[in-house]
Specification:
This protein is α/β, with parallel strands linked by helices. The protein has helices spanning 2-18, 63-82, 101-114, 131-137, 153-158, 162-165, 168-178, 198-210, 225-235, 243-255, 288-291, 317-325, 339-352, 358-365, 369-372, 374-382, 398-423, 428-435; strands spanning 22-23, 39-44, 46-47, 59-60, 89-94, 119-124, 143-149, 184-191, 215-220, 262-264, 269-272, 297-298, 303-306, 309-313, 331-336, 355-357, 386-389, 393-396.
């Protein structure tokens, strides 16, 4: 699609220029805004396998490294409590948060002591969907997202996931067995792998429809500059030219027709429809960035969004441990967003969630979306992105959903590059791990 190519080329340098961080002397995150509801993101950077396309802070798991890290993660959580925060939702991302299940459980239990926790979400991998882990997670974790990426065995081998996480058939069976343990089990898929065919995509969609999970995400493959070489070596060259066709297949199979099996929750998140044809309201979105406008984040390599600024935490785990043990938080770098940047961020997140409330936008920024973002509105209008654009709201067409997908994909790529800036300061083993072949 010509509009996709234009958007990608336009947004790449724009996002790269805007998402630039600088070192900061601040030792703590800013305090909470009175009356604001907060989610806390906690990053666990350990994995048993390092995926070639992943741009998050991640390290090969060792017990020796993980246990002190979890101890300091809990200490940083206590510091957040000391700043006056109360937290209603926890989200553990990674890495693989369940890699040290007992440490994870201890961290969740402490959070309940410190805060008014209502819900806990976490990510995991298929090999942890086993009774000994599930029994410890049940009651502690309400929303679990399992990273599957694809059920295709050849793709799993290319991603170095087959040997550790099992075949597509084994993963499919484990998902079905895990569903009853949680309020919501999300299956996290990726589409547009270089070697993925339409037949593989249709097969993955069939597995999603029959596995029993109440939610699925199908995000497009995106990488940072630092992981492009490893990804290309393992999976092949990216082809964005077919992304639109693949997205239409996903959207049509899951949410198209008169009696769809799923309903759209966001541009790339789908909730299973119940017997009355409507998605269960209890199945909430499992993407922390879109559930809260601002949030604190702790742990090595995590990114906080508070008071119109992004705070990037220390990426080196030894240095992270030193910072926490010295009595300070792990804030390392900061970027301040302009009013226009914040308007674009709100615009993107609302459209990603499929509806922009024009009154809320005006109340938040003091101007209409047309006055604040005339270029963005003109481009999307000219490309047939809006099914509704009246005085109250904006809703999206199928084409519009895909264009927002492109925008959000580029935004997440920009966030990956923001992480890359922080990683540039790593040295020795840690630098080789992130910028070499990932096997140091």
């Amino acid at each position: 699609m010509l509009a996709e190519r234009f958007l990608t080329r336009l947004l790449k340098p724009m996002i790269r220029q805007k998402l630039m961080s600088s070192p900061t002397d601040e030792q703590y995150l800013p305090g909470p805004t009175p009356g604001e509801r907060y989610m806390l993101y906690l990053h666990v950077p350990f994995c048993e396998r390092l995926c070639p396309y992943c741009s998050f802070n991640r390290y090969p798991y060792t017990d020796k490294m993980a246990k002190p890290y979890f101890k300091n993660l809990r200490e940083e959580m206590r510091m957040l409590k000391g700043l006056g925060y109360d937290i209603e939702t926890l989200y553990f991302g990674g890495g693989t948060p369940t890699v040290e299940i007992d440490e994870l459980c201890e961290t969740i239990d402490l959070a309940h002591e410190l805060f008014s926790i209502e819900e806990v979400g976490a990510e995991t991998n298929p090999n942890h969907l086993i009774p000994s882990y599930l029994e410890k997670m049940t009651g502690r974790i309400q929303r679990l997202s399992v990273g599957v990426q694809s059920f295709d065995d050849d793709l799993l081998r290319q991603m170095d996931r087959y040997e550790k996480y099992g075949s597509g058939d084994e993963i499919f069976q484990r998902i079905g067995e895990a569903v009853p343990y949680f309020d919501s089990l999300n299956v996290d898929m990726i589409f547009n792998f270089p070697s993925q065919t339409e037949d593989i995509l249709f097969s993955d969609l069939e597995r999603i429809c029959t596995c029993g999970a109440r939610q699925t995400t199908f995000s497009p493959l995106y990488v940072s500059n630092s992981t492009m070489k490893m990804m290309t070596s393992a999976l092949g060259d990216m082809d964005y030219g077919r992304e639109w066709d693949y997205y239409r297949i996903i959207d049509g199979v899951l949410a198209g027709g008169d009696d769809p099996m799923f309903e759209r929750e966001t541009v790339w998140t789908f909730n299973r429809a119940s017997e009355d044809g409507h998605a269960d309201d209890a199945v909430r979105i499992n993407e922390y960035q879109t559930s809260y406008n601002e949030y604190p984040a702790i742990g090595s390599g995590s990114i906080t969004h508070l008071n119109g600024a992004l705070y990037v935490n220390e990426f080196s785990i030894p240095k992270y441990n030193e910072m926490i043990e010295s009595g300070r938080m792990s804030v390392k770098e900061k970027t301040v967003m302009s009013k226009r940047d914040l308007m674009r961020y709100r615009f993107l997140l609302d459209l990603y969630r499929l509806r922009l409330d024009k009154k809320r936008f005006r109340d938040e920024f003091g101007c209409s979306v047309e006055a604040g973002l005339p270029g963005e509105m003109a481009f999307l209008t000219a490309n047939g992105a809006f099914s509704v654009n009246d005085a109250n709201e904006i809703l999206l067409t199928e084409r519009g959903r895909y264009l927002v997908l492109v925008m959000y994909r580029q935004f997440l790529s920009g966030m990956n590059n923001l992480r890359e800036q922080a990683r540039q300061r790593l040295t020795g083993y840690e630098r080789t791990l992130h910028f070499g072949d990932g096997t140091a």
